[in-house]
Amino acid sequence: MQFIKPKNNNADKVDWLISEQVREIVKNYAEYCEYSESEVVDMFLKNLLKDEDFLKWIDGIRHNKRMLRKMGLDEVLEVEKLG
């Protein structure tokens, strides 16, 4: 049996401007996959953590331990360095 994970554990409200086109895409995609618009944006933006150049950039920043911990990357990058 799989346990249910909580949604948006530490959700914060943000105030960003996006184009009307992007807003419409998110709205319709959320309807299609039966998630809320916030959940769609949250899941999609987590894909940024698969950008290898971004990860290299983060790894090169001095004193980045807090940043890595907040993004959930501290253990991932440490394992890559060891492996």
Topology:
Elements: H1 20-33, H2 37-45, H3 52-60, H4 65-71, H5 74-82
Compressed to H and E, one letter per element, the order equals HHHHH
Return Rg in Å. Answer: 16 Å
Largest sheet: none
Strand content: under 5%
Number of helices: 5
Write down the overall geometry: globular
Proportion in helices: 55-70%
The number of distinct β-strands equals: 0
Structural class call reads mainly alpha
User: Averaged pLDDT, please?
Assistant: 84
Distance between the termini: 32 Å
Catalogue the unreliable spans. none
Question: What can you see in these coordinates?
Answer:
This protein has 83 residues and is an all-alpha fold. Helix content is 58%, strand content 0%. The chain is globular and about 40 Å long.
Can you describe this structure in just a few lines?
The chain is an all-alpha fold and 83 residues long.
For this entry, give a set of tags.
83 residues; mainly alpha; 0% strand
